[in-house]
Amino acid sequence: MSALRLEELSAATIVAVNQLGLKPGQEQFVTPVSYAAAAAVTPAHTAWQRVVLDGDRVVGFVHGNFDPDAPQEEFRAALWRINVDADAQGKGVGTFAVNALIEEARRRGVDHLTVLWERGEDGPEEFFLHIGFKPVDETPYGEVIGVIDLSE
Fold first, then answer.
1. Residue 137: which domain range?
2. 48, 65 contact by CB (below 8 A)
3. CB neighbours of 134 closer than 8 A, spacing ≥ 6?
4. CB atoms within 10 A of CB 132
5. How much is the pLDDT for 100?
6. Whose CA, among 35, 74, 90, 117, lies 20 to 30 Å from 135?
């Protein structure tokens, strides 16, 4: 991989983001139920969406949400989505994207970031634990609520 870089999601990159491939078995872990429900009432201006590029090739997408007024704590500063193309997984793309979101959260004065995930074979749990998220609770749908402390 050459030097990775971020760009805001745009009309020029959205098609490539929608065509990112998954490894077999990952489909069921793309969007937790809680995020789908929360997205229906989340204001668009709270979204932080970036495309990860390797040269000119879109290899990943990260969607953060910053809404200090969200009624549920886990949605106030959250990693909503991380997608890395199947061919680019395991090469640092996801770590690069999440670290960029963490830096944005720090820039905004946020002291912790949350993420939700479903447990299961081929799921993202190992990745989130590797990044430093710690399981702290579960949603009513059985998804894990993970938190990373940014004040350290």
1. 4-149
2. yes
3. 146, 147, 148
4. 15
5. 97
6. 90
Return the structure tokens found at 108: 């905004």
Average pLDDT over residues 13-25: 77
Structurally, the chain folds into a number of domains equal to 1
117 to each of 14, 77, 102, 109, how far by Cα in Å? 24, 15, 17, 24
Burial 105-124 (b: 16+ CB within 10 A, else e): beeeebebbbbbbbeeeebb
pLDDT at 66 over 70: yes
Cβ–Cβ < 8 Å for 63, 21: no
State the CATH number of the domain containing residue 45: 3.40.630.30
pLDDT in tens, 107-132: 999 999 999 998 988 889 999 999 99
* Residue whose pair of structure tokens reads 């998954």 in the numeric block: 22
**pLDDT score for 30:** 64
Q: Which of 125 and 41 is assigned the larger pLDDT?
A: 125
Give the confidence band of 32 by pLDDT, cuts at 50, 70, 90: very low
Cβ-in-10-Å burial (0-12, 13-18, 19+) of 13 comes to middle
